[in-house]
Amino acid sequence: MVSTRRGGGGMRVTNATIRAVNGLTARWAATTSGGTVFSAVGVWPLLALLADGAAGAARAELEEAVGVSAGRASRAARELLAGLGTVGGLETALGLWTGRTLELREEWAAGLPTEAHGVLTGDVETDGTALDAWAVRRTGGLIERMPVAVAPGTDLVLASALALRTRWLRPFEESCVVPESGPWEGRELLGLRRESVLLDRIGVADTPEGHVTELKVLGGTAVDVHLLLGEESMTPGQVLGAGLGVLARAHQVTPGSRLPYGEAGPGLHVGREHTSRPEPPALDVTTTAYDVTAGHDLLERPELFGLATAAREAPGHFPGIGSRLPLYVEAARQSAVARFGARGFEAAAVTAIGAAGCALPRPLWLRTTVRAAFDRPFGFLAVHRHTRLALVAGWVVDPEPHREGEVLH
């Protein structure tokens, strides 16, 4: 399996790819409810690689899900993975495991990073242990198991892993916080507080669904965490969608230095305080630490990920991946974790798609079968097709014996 580690340069990924991945994030976010964590970045390259090898309706659905043409999807996936490898504090990996009976098409396999290919032995316990170990190793122990279990009929597993760790440029101070209202009222929580003179680290976005307060917490590896607080009537999907809209510059944002006095946004109040000496304006932030884990079955919402047709047990979905064995997607899952604390942030996600060879459909008609067995001495003629000239003739009374491992030419 291949992995890429942090580098010193900037990430070079086309705007079209970034828009496509963020678009998948927004669509996924729109379906969320309750506590969760997910990574479209972990899913997108896998869908793009599948799209490159797909055909028919499966190809069209995957193409729509990834937001780029299937013809350039593989190149875009490689570009994204390479770009991620230059991000400080981020480690990524791509893995492909196939059964011994699956013959990959060279054109599709050439689109994968070098040394990404492993083998499924056919022993479920052995393969499961190996894949779990890969997930642990590639995420530094944040994810302990591969989200897709290897079944007896699994012929292909395509997986991605990412692990992100960053430390804040300025740490928070820990304290006990007891909210006075809302869903957390009366609970003693691990609070995080810090003060800054950089008012524009916070702002209020004006979106069609409502106002959203956005706080940027800067990490030391050029990876930041944006905290988003929406109006109470807004859904998780709307708040996350607003944050993505801010990234796309689709919403107007009023920075902290230009906010009006009073209730300026969700959870945000701007006022004046008396001080004993001249002091600059300050941004005083209180939040809570969190540790969120989630597991996602992508086939529960197959249309979102372009897998509706690909998950049907029928041949013809992925002729560009394997030339002999027809494949369908039998499982697609992601395991994710995110931890936000006083000193930094860490997150990881492992996404895996398992494919199996599908049973060929039973014929719908009857046919006559003629069987012949040349199991006693017989003759032969080698005939020139166009002139019907017999070039060689013979008779067989002593055929060659079978020898294990020997191939007759």
Main sheet attributes: strand count, strand direction, barrel closure: 7 strands, mixed
**General form:** elongated
Q: Low-confidence parts, pLDDT < 50 over ≥5 residues?
A: 4-9, 383-387
Beta percentage is 25-35%
CATH architecture of the largest domain: 2-Layer Sandwich
Task: Assign the CATH class of the largest domain.
Answer: Alpha Beta
> Can you tell me the CATH topology of the largest domain?
Antithrombin, Chain I, domain 2
Protein model, in words:
The protein starts with a strand and ends in a 13-residue tail after the last strand. Helix 2 packs antiparallel against helix 3. The longest helix is centred in the N-terminal third of the chain and has 15 residues. Strands 1, 2, 3, 4, 14, 15 and 16 form a 7-stranded mixed beta sheet that branches. Strands 9-8-7-10 form a 4-stranded antiparallel beta sheet, covered by helices on one side. It is built from 7 helices and 18 strands. A hairpin with a 2-residue loop joins strand 7 and strand 8. The protein has 2 domains: 229 residues, Antithrombin, Chain I, domain 2 (2-Layer Sandwich); 84 residues, no CATH class. With 409 residues, the protein is an alpha+beta fold.
